[in-house]
Amino acid sequence: MKARKRLAALSELNYLKVARRMRIAIQIADAMEVQHISKKELAQKMGRQPSEITKWLSGDQNFTSDIMTELSYYLHAKITGELPDYSVTYLNLSYSPSLSIDLPYVNVGFPLRNRRQWKDLSYQSIIATEKYN
Amino acid sequence: MGFRIVEIEELSGPNCKIYSIAYDGKGGDTLFDEFLDRMDEDYPNEVEDIWSKLQFMGYEGGARLQFFRENEGKPGDGVVALLKESGFTLRLYAIRYGVTLLILGSGGYKDSSIDAWQKDEVLKYHAEEMIKISAMITERIKNKDIRICDDGTLEGDLYFDEETNNQ
User: Fold this and answer.
1) Which of A15, A76, A98, B103 places its Cα 20 to 30 Å from the Cα of B163?
2) Which helix (H) or strand (E) holds A125?
3) Rounded mean pLDDT of B75-91?
4) CB–CB of A22 and B56 under 8 A?
5) What is the pTM of this model?
């Protein structure tokens, strides 16, 4: 369990880099579904191999801004890797006495290290998320 | 030797529950810990990425199929591989039940000259281990000894005595 202890203490920066790649991968997959475009078709449009599209969808690709522009162009979608805007939800939560009710469905924008932190999400966490956004 | 399905609390989140397999006599270490400890020295950056990917699935994106290589086991058994590609490939085997539940096994380094896990002794061992465990879990689910909740949480008898199950 030595490695797990090291990894559990990783900086949030590492998570943010990986999470952005994976959000982009999700946005691509969702846009492909909406546009009814297969991997093969997207690869053809972009002059690439289908295996490259598979890699992009796996969340392993470090996307350049040019590739993201191409993807947005061919998929007619905003491929940004940014978090959805949950500001309204946060505002409601911040001033709601029933703070805990909606929490499992709120994306707070940074990794929580364990369940206790998730359950103990406080006003401070919400402020931190707003700063991040 | 028996094993228990245990939750990896650092990764398990509201969007995907993440578990691994802890064999008796291993001091609580899981197959996933074995993978991390074995790979961490030689591939620390890749291991960090795998960790963050799983954390993302737990807390944000869920275990979407697009993140995995499918059909690593028998048809319909849910055995998949999480890949980390960076000129070479690390493979972590898992059993995936929709986007909300992932049971992690172990894995290893896959040389680019090898086209299938069956040709690598280490990968073969870990893939077959997950195929066997998947079959045992499926049996428990069929018998209603294990239940998968809507949020991916496993409930029921999560301890397996392998000798009993192999009879």
Assistant:
1) B103
2) helix A123-132
3) 86
4) yes
5) 0.81
